[in-house]
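Title: Prediction job returns without error message
Component: structure pipeline
Severity: low
Priority: P3
Assignee: unassigned

Description:
Job completed but the reporter wants confirmation the result is attached to the right record. Sequence as submitted:
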Amino acid sequence: MKVKPDYIKWITLFTFFFIIFNQIIWIYNMYNAYVQEFNEAINKSLENALDKELIERQETLGDFFYKNLAQSSDEEGYIKRTYVTADTTFHVRIHKHDTKSQNKLTQFFLQYNYPLKLEKLDSIFQEEIKTTKFTLKDISFEYINLATEEILDSYPKENNFTKPVPDRFIKLDILESIGLKMYMKDPGSSVVKSMAYQLSLSILLITIGILGLLYLMRTIYAQFKEEKMRQSSINAMTHEFKRPISGAVTQTSLISYYLDKEDYQKARKYAQGSLLELNKLTAYTERIQRISNNEKGNIVLDKTSVEMIPFFDSLKNKYEGEVKGKLIALDYQVHTERETIYVDLLHFSNVMDNLIENAIKYSGKEVRIEVTVEDRKNDIVLHVKDNGFGISKIDIKYIFDRFYRSNAKEAKSKTGFGLGLTYVKAIVEAHGGKIEVRSELGEGSEFIIYLPQNNNEVKTDV
């Protein structure tokens, strides 16, 4: 079943947004869980710090100075107690299950002569919070008289980040006459820092998912594109094959006719014409087979030292002149001390033929081709430059792709299979080299081939 490219695009986009949405929900839920854990850690640490700070104040007093004179229970689950100090009697009502009632009583009795020490509380709190996964640096406390709302003490004295609403508020004593307010600067950053590992994994997962989707979509589109180009190439092949086949069939059918009429001269003429068309068909078949089987691993090279001057002379003689209404001028220059080039002669000849035939095909009536050979370290560099139509910036990225043919008007009017430059690139790479192209529309093209020559001897003057 074939799936249209547009469907692939929408499926990919849906999957992309699903991954993003899923990760956002996961991060949101994880953040809320960490906030809850953070609040529990702060509450527990502050509670422990208050208890330890109170114990230190008690220890400085020695024996405690108040005593219980009487107690009674009521029907609501409360206990009524009476306490007497040196100059005052207090009646308090305590819930039976209040585990902090004794501490609240102590806070009440110590608030006048031995009030809460905020600096000590901060020190103990910082030690307590270190036992959790969270860190808090910028915090402040206020010790408040709840009846008058007077701030009895604060720590630190300078607080530049106090919020209108405190992060924590605790009523300290049994009569709820004193309280503690705690402020934190940017508590959310502490939560986020504790989530760093999970956030990193989430970002990594999103990145891998997106890259995987992009790679998959690119691969699928490339396959669609190659299939389309392959189909176009097959159509071109069919068109190219049809002409010699039709010609051969027509001329072959005339041979028997003229043999019957004993016109042997015309019979011979049509036999030769039929053979010529069949030879064209054979040449097309061999060429397609050669340039189709161009994977680097499938190419077996038989390298040898080829004399450059005779090779380029034969190339010049082969192409220069007037061919099919085009006037072709081919010049070459050799700027190297090397006399030979170490290549596979057959494949290297095919590479040069492809480049020159393309230059002729995609040019006007007057074709100028310049071939330049030069040294570059251990490489031989060949430049094949023409004055043809040129290649657009869009096409230049794909011209070496299998089956690719430009949509430009000049290119579409020419026959071809879209395999020639693919073959050229494969042969160059099989030699351990590389190929580049420089071109602009209307200004011709230049193909540059770099061929390693470590095994090629250099001519030296004695």
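Comment from assignee: result matches the submitted record. Residues 456-462 have pLDDT under 50 and may be disordered.
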